[in-house]
């Protein structure tokens, strides 16, 4: 009797899981492994597969070797690193700051929280177009403010090879801040106010309270956001494609996913593109694994 | 605390999900692989062996030809429908099934379908993609059809037709056609006391006039001619240069003629500043600059006509683009091709032949102002010439005499992108013209296989 009920239960579970499992298999798992196979071929992405006739040709690690030996991969990696070095500290600082501001009981605080979250909901196409205008050289507000406040003659942001990437970083921070601030806000609200009270009575000033209570107790959130941001950074794509058409002033905003897209769909080198994306996968995996190891040193899961 | 353990678990779940999304990024491309692997035999039996003569045995059978295109999207859809109706009236046994895909998605979709063995019978390709498709052997050789139907090639512009052949094989026919010429603001010329462009103009007169107009006002520029691949391959030929050696086995990008060509273009921006820098343009489009009356001359295509006719408030006209040691002009054309595996190749050929070279289709095109047909019928072109402005429409046809075609290289888009990046480096003064072309030469030699 119990056996039968158990079986029924299992059947129900399987039935409910089936649709999403099929979707996952067809649209993610199988293609992922397919791309691994393709990465060992010279497939151009155009000719139908016909293994008997040698279409495509299996070339072992040929693509990987060509990518790692070429200058392009390292240049693109450097561009990505430039983005990460600018983006990560700024987004962490900005989202913590925003979360602290939003963690107060102002009137209409809900409205402020919504306003901070709106950029997250905006499509990248619209956001990128707005930022193109904000950062334009002659009539963009950013340069107008720079020259009015600081008397600085601002650069031609997106047309300048040094400043194109920072321009993209600003847009990304504006867009992503709301989402990460929301996560931080959740973390802040989970902190027991008693700690602050105790510290206050002991005479700890705001900075002490921030570094000794807020940051340690927020560290799981910071860790989560850090990992998400690094993964997002390696996958940088729509900003680059829209704000700096075709990867900017002579390739200064060429990044990995942009290269993968071009190789796969514009240059007809699907094998090469697949290898590139697996290298990207390994890099992200390695970064994430290192972070997971390092977290023991600074992330406090128990209060 | 339960909450924090939950956060830890959530962290791990999200990481796994995101990592798999990355791989799916590349995986997305593989849907076609998955599909095509299901039909590996699709290319086992290439219908290329099925010669048109064989298929022509049953002409009376009703057939449906699937036609994929991007240029019939939006406003132009109705003209394509007109052509379809005219064709079906003439060929009652052939039904055309038009499938229009927006330009932005067209080539990724077409790539997926070709790889899956599900390409339409006939479809449209722009030149860049045409070369890749032709070189990869997914298109049908249409020469046998030309012979079988005794097609009169003189009804088409020769260079436009030649553009759609590769390695001596005709893989397509020109559908629409747009050439590039010099468009100028007559009023600015008068104001600057400059002589109007003539067919005898060379770079010198061109640049002198640009300088005079530039001198008028701080915000008025002499000329706009983009420094990019499509202009550059033509401009070097005006200076007797070339991107490839004569037998097309090596790049000659940094030849003295080419360096001189690029130097002139860069000087126009950075030295004489007759052409605006990117910063001076500051996001304003080149056409908008012209329409605003702030630009003396612009080198652009006939596709600008309908916009300029409506939106330009001053007097303007056109001329054949000036050359240097010789004249060279270029054009853009979208080709019509037949899928190598099409089962109705003969009917598909009738359809693209109609679109490309028939008088009816050409008339619809001219009447609609939908680019230019690549045809040579004098009476059809007469109608085109009668419309003004520009008064000197004849220059559109005079330009055809000097047409040059881009190099036919399998990795065409990649080559154009690489060269483009180095050209920009020079145009912004980050490198000298010589350095930029030396670097381009090196990178192209490393990355682009020639035959």
Structural commentary:
The complex is a heterodimer of chains A (303) and B (451). Chain A contains twelve helices and no strands. In chain A, helix 7 packs across helix 9 and helix 11 packs antiparallel against helix 12. The radius of gyration of chain A is 24 Å and the shape is globular. Chain A has 303 residues and is mainly alpha-helical. In chain B, helix 17 runs parallel beside helix 18. Chain B is 48% helix and 14% strand. In chain B, strands 1, 2, 3, 6, 7, 8, 9, 10 and 11 form a nine-stranded mixed sheet that branches. At the A-B interface, helix 1, helix 9, helix 11 and helix 12 of A face helix 1, helix 2, helix 5, helix 13 and helix 20 of B.
Keywords summarizing the entry:
heterodimer, A: 303 residues, mainly alpha, MetI-like fold, 12 helices, 0% strand, B: 451 residues, alpha/beta, D-Maltodextrin-Binding Protein, domain 2, 2 domains, nine-stranded mixed beta sheet, two-stranded antiparallel ribbon, 21 helices, 11 strands, globular
Could you outline the blueprint of secondary structure elements for this entry?
The complex is a heterodimer of chains A (303) and B (451).
Chain A: H1 2-38, H2 62-69, H3 71-102, H4 109-121, H5 124-134, H6 141-150, H7 164-189, H8 193-201, H9 206-234, H10 238-243, H11 256-266, H12 270-298
Chain B: H1 2-27, H2 31-38, H3 52-55, E1 63-69, H4 77-90, E2 94-100, H5 103-115, E3 122-126, H6 127-135, H7 143-148, H8 158-163, E4 165-166, E5 169-170, E6 172-185, H9 186-192, H10 203-214, E7 221-224, H11 229-238, H12 256-270, H13 278-281, H14 286-291, E8 295-301, H15 305-311, E9 316-319, E10 331-338, H16 345-357, H17 359-368, E11 372-373, H18 378-386, H19 394-400, H20 412-427, H21 433-447
Parallel strand pairs in B: 1-2, 1-3, 7-8
Antiparallel strand pairs in B: 3-10, 4-5, 6-8, 6-9, 6-10, 6-11
